[in-house]
Design a protein that fits this description.
The complex is a heterodimer.
Chain A (H helix, E strand, L loop, with lengths): L2 H12 L4 E2 L1 H10 L7 E4 L14 E6 L12 E5 L2 H17 L6 E6 L5 E10 L3 E8 L2 H4 L4 E5 L4 H10 L3 H4 L10 H12 L4 H4 L4 E11 L4 E3 L2 E5 L6
Antiparallel strand pairs in A: 1-11, 2-5, 3-4, 3-5, 6-7, 6-9, 7-8, 9-10, 9-11
Helix pairs in contact in A: 5-7
Chain B lengths: L3 H4 L3 E5 L8 H11 L5 E5 L5 E2 L2 E2 L11 E6 L6 H6 L5 E6 L11 H14 L2 E3 L6 E2 L18 E5 L2 H13 L4 E6 L8 H10 L5 E6 L5 H11 L5 E5 L13 H5 L2 H12 L2 E3 L2 H13 L11 E5 L2 H13 L9 H9 L12 E2 L2 H4 L6 H12 L4 E7 H5 L8 H15 L5 E7 L4 H16 L4 E2 L2 H21 L1
Parallel strand pairs in B: 1-2, 1-5, 5-6, 6-7, 9-10, 9-11, 11-12, 12-13, 14-15, 14-16, 16-17, 17-18
Antiparallel strand pairs in B: 3-4, 8-10
Classes of the chains: A alpha+beta, B alpha/beta.
Chain lengths: 237, 476
């Protein structure tokens, strides 16, 4: 494991957290080569430094009291420009005060290019060890449970078969007039998370569960737009 | 790990057999002797000079040589000390006794058992199981088990289900290289025995009944490394109750044991089954048929009597991902040229009523099968006969059934490797029909033709083979 990742987990544990906050989780993903949106964390009260970033933006509340942030009203998407993003940051700061939530900051990110939403997850199973999941996003996973699991480490063929195993796979292949999705981008994301030197294999002792939801797959990129990492009860020695 | 000493013990000790009554220890001795065990069999008894007519030893130390396999049937509280006394004297001990980790109050005792085994250097099978069955080693924990060995190696975490697998299985034509019941799997887990069977030249197909594989990771690694070298058939118990109680993520709430096993099957080519009967049917298919990685089974030709049976069968095959589609034109033309009686449909399914099957005293089947094998491009052929239609008929001019079965055996022998051939012999359950089915089954299975009771069972069996074949074709 890279030292800077070890540091992320140590800090979270020292702060008594059971879940990594979104910026930390995304640093972990990025370390394994998963594309994440460009963005900055705005510390409470400070002026957002959005130079060099291009709208539209997403703004997200970072609070240990709101780990399901959209439920707490802590997610704003499609903010057209820097001014709108700054306004959203101020609103969230006010919101956290009003709801009495501890505020670590507000994450402002570039919106990922539109595409098909997938969910990539992982968990450390007590019997089988690291296990990888792929789901088709939105209602497909919520209502139909359209998922495929594999025991890690997976290889390229496993990744391709996971995609084919989804009942909604025809959507990815371009059913109903949609543009077909570049399968190699999904394969790449799956290998980064569940492959031989992937995130789940290397961090088996540190994390218990992982959600990347959504992974937005566009023609130009597959971007991990939100991430949640649940820490293992006890850190690896 | 070599479990050779378990399946072919040269020195076998039994602890707990009674000098006066009959308990599981005595049963093990009796069934093992009935199977013709020819090694040294030593009852261990604190006082008696002989048990079951065999000279007894007072302890493991008293045996005078290393015990390959000790069968232990004494009260649970005595077991840890007994295992401690086996250090350096016993290689494998099977603890059939209950009262360990399967009960909350027995968990500490199981922990003590495991610790005793580790420090004594004795490998423990069980506890809470029934024993080992090995036709080659002439060892059995139940009566009536066949002395005839075969290629099927089975691991079961339930002893009772092991009895079903042996007895019902052998009546279906299954023959075993060995079967071991692992109960709580406190020390030796299923993965270790799977590895042993993978390397065992006498084992060609592996069956596993599992409720809780604690060494799941080792199991995955072993099967992954084997790359489908031997078919593995799995029946899982207790999956619905294994919800993930405290998931803190979306992924965690979606993951279930069954979902993970489904994925693992795709990664390793193991055939998952849902019932005991399906488990046995798929094992029989692998015992008799040679899986083809080059041409996975897809197109099936169905041939036999019974219109509704053909229709239902086509549905059953379709629902298991197997195709029942019209044969190529040359096959149909050749079948038409046979000028079979009206009412015979030759497209696929080939629906041949009893009066068609009685042509040439039943030998017509050979000509039909020849055509299908030569021109029908089948991956598998399933021939089905509703036996009571023939046995109950007033037309008894010949032994039509015998001729039909023999015709099938001859035709398939003439075209080796062309298609999997499966026989379905349907019965009304009457004694006379069951008797004939048994005869036919024995003969056919010896010729490498699996016999199933129903078309849906044949569909399940071929679906298992097809799944494994698709795995082979994708990974080689």
């Amino acid at each position: 494991m890279k030292p800077e990742l070890k540091q992320i987990f140590l800090q979270a544990r020292a702060a008594g957290r059971s879940v990594l906050d979104e910026p930390a989780a995304k640093r972990v993903l990025a370390a394994y080569g998963l594309p994440v949106p460009r963005g900055v964390t705005v510390v409470p009260g400070q002026k957002p430094a959005l130079e060099g970033l291009r709208g539209p933006f997403a703004a997200k509340l970072i609070s240990p009291d709101a780990s399901h942030k959209s439920d707490a009203g802590g997610v704003r998407l499609g903010l057209a420009d820097a001014a709108a993003a700054v306004a959203a940051v101020r609103e969230m700061e006010a919101l956290s005060k009003m709801k009495n939530l501890r505020l670590d900051g507000v994450l402002v990110e570039e919106m990922a290019p539109a595409g098909i939403e997938l969910m990539v997850g992982g968990l450390i199973d007590p019997r089988f060890g690291p296990v990888l999941m792929l789901g088709l996003g939105g209602v497909f996973v919520e209502i139909f449970g359209d998922t495929a699991f594999r025991v890690c480490p997976i290889d390229r063929l496993d990744a391709e078969e996971m995609i084919d195993d989804l009942r909604g796979a025809p959507l990815l292949r371009g059913a109903r007039g949609r543009a077909p999705v570049d399968k190699s981008r999904i394969v790449g994301a799956l290998l980064a998370v569940g492959g031989e030197a992937g995130l789940l294999m290397e961090l088996e002792g540190e994390l218990a569960e992982l959600d990347i939801n959504p992974l937005i797959v566009a023609p130009e990129a597959a971007t991990a737009c939100d991430a949640r990492i649940v820490l293992a009860r006890k850190a690896a020695e | 790990m070599s479990f050779g000493a378990v399946f072919r013990p040269r020195v076998l000790a039994v602890v707990g057999a009674s000098a006066t009554g009959v308990n599981p220890g005595n049963e093990f001795i009796r069934h093992t002797r009935a199977l013709g065990y020819d090694g040294r069999l030593v009852p261990i008894h604190p006082h008696a000079a002989s048990v079951e007519g065999l000279p007894a030893a007072k302890s493991f130390a008293d045996v005078g040589e290393t015990v390959d396999f000790a069968y232990i049937a004494v009260g649970a509280p005595q077991v840890p000390d007994l295992i401690a006394s086996a250090a350096g004297k016993v290689r494998y001990a099977q603890v059939m006794s209950s009262g360990f980790g399967e009960l909350a109050e027995g968990r500490a005792l199981e922990q003590r058992l495991v610790e005793a085994a580790r420090s004594a250097g004795v490998r423990v099978l069980g506890p809470n199981c029934l024993g080992v069955y090995s036709p080659r080693g002439r060892v059995s924990f139940i009566g009536g088990a066949s002395p005839e060995p075969g290629p099927v190696g089975v691991i079961t975490q339930s002893g009772g289900l092991g009895v079903d697998i042996i007895l019902r299985g052998q009546n279906r034509g299954l023959r075993y290289s060995g079967l071991v019941t692992l109960g709580n799997s406190a020390d030796v887990g299923p993965a270790e025995v799977v590895e042993y069977f993978l390397g065992d030249p006498d084992t060609g197909v592996i069956g596993l009944y599992a409720e809780d594989i604690k060494d799941g990771r080792a199991f995955f690694r072993a099967l992954r490394a084997a790359r489908g070298a031997k078919p593995v058939v799995v029946l899982l118990g207790g999956q619905t109750s294994q919800g993930r109680s405290a998931a803190a993520s979306h992924t965690g709430s979606l993951a279930s044991g069954a979902e993970i096993w489904r994925g693992l099957a795709r990664q390793t080519g193991i055939a998952m089954t849902r019932t005991l009967d399906e488990f046995l049917d798929v094992l029989l298919a692998f015992q008799t048929l040679a899986p083809r990685g080059t041409r996975p089974t897809r197109r099936c030709v169905l041939f036999g009597n019974g219109g509704g049976t053909s229709v239902l069968a086509a549905d059953a095959f379709g629902s298991r991902g197997l195709e029942v589609v019209p044969m190529p034109e040359p096959a149909i033309a050749a079948l038409v040229a046979l000028k079979l009686p009206p009412g015979t449909s030759v497209v696929n399914p080939i629906d041949a009523p009893a009066y068609t099957l009685r042509q040439e005293d039943g030998r017509i089947a050979e000509r039909i099968l020849d055509i299908v094998l030569q021109h029908g491009a089948p991956d598998a052929i399933v021939m089905h006969i509703n036996l009571p239609v023939f046995t109950a008929s007033t037309i008894q001019g010949a032994d039509f059934l015998q001729n039909l079965v023999d015709a099938a055996i001859r035709a398939t022998a003439r075209h080796p490797g062309r298609a999997h051939f499966v026989l379905v012999l349907r019965s009304d359950g009457s004694e006379a029909v069951e008797r004939r089915r048994r005869e036919f089954r024995e003969k056919a299975v010896k010729q490498g033709i699996p016999v199933h009771d129903e078309m849906a069972a044949a569909a399940d069996a071929l679906a298992g083979v097809a799944f494994h074949e698709r795995f082979l074709s994708s990974r080689r």
